[in-house]
């Protein structure tokens, strides 16, 4: 079974992510090192294409792990609710 690192080592972040990662330096983004920022941005601001890409790249289990360790306030209410359904998250953290 491939690990997330082996799976992502050959992938490049698609250009359609530029619109939702505008606050980060595009040329320095690494899909493994910046995984949490990429996932949070895709869940909050992304289109269906962004969601498909993160699921294909990181897998549902890894996305669930990342999201469960983020604060509830980091997400738009609609995005948070959809993520709960799609990734099987019972609750987001409310405090650090």
Characteristic terms for this protein:
mainly alpha, 5 helices, 96 residues, single chain, 49% helix
Question: Could you write a compact summary of the structure shown?
Answer:
The protein is mostly helical and 96 residues long. Helix content is 49%, strand content 0%. The chain has 5 helices and no strands.
Descriptive notes:
The protein has 96 residues and is an all-alpha fold. It has helices spanning 4-8, 35-45, 48-58, 60-68, 77-87. It has a domain at 29-91.
Shape: globular
Sheet/helix structural class: mainly alpha
Counted beta strands: 0
Q: Quickly count the helices.
A: 5
Compute the separation of the termini in Å.
33 Å
Residue runs with pLDDT of under 50 for 5 or more positions: none
* Biggest pleated sheet: none
Range of strand content: under 5%
The string of secondary-structure elements, in order, is: HHHHH
Radius of gyration: 13 Å
Average pLDDT number: 90
User: Which range best describes the helical content: under 10%, 10-25%, 25-40%, 40-55%, 55-70% or over 70%?
Assistant: 40-55%
